[in-house]
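This part of the workshop introduces the protein records we will be handling. The structure tokens are whole numbers drawn from a learned vocabulary of backbone shapes. The record below serves as our worked example for the rest of this section.

===
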Amino acid sequence: MKRNKSFTASRRLRANTQRRTMLKRAHQRVMARRKQFAITELQEEWSQAS
């Protein structure tokens, strides 16, 4: 008897989509942290310079 491949393929596709969205969210968090860090570093430099 043949196995129905559409179900397993759709499950794999869903897992890949979930993985991509999770990575996107994590990347957004990292980029936000980097931006915040850069801003605080600049502020510290400016406060030391003046």
Residues 5-49 form the longest helix (45 residues). The chain has a mean pLDDT of 90.
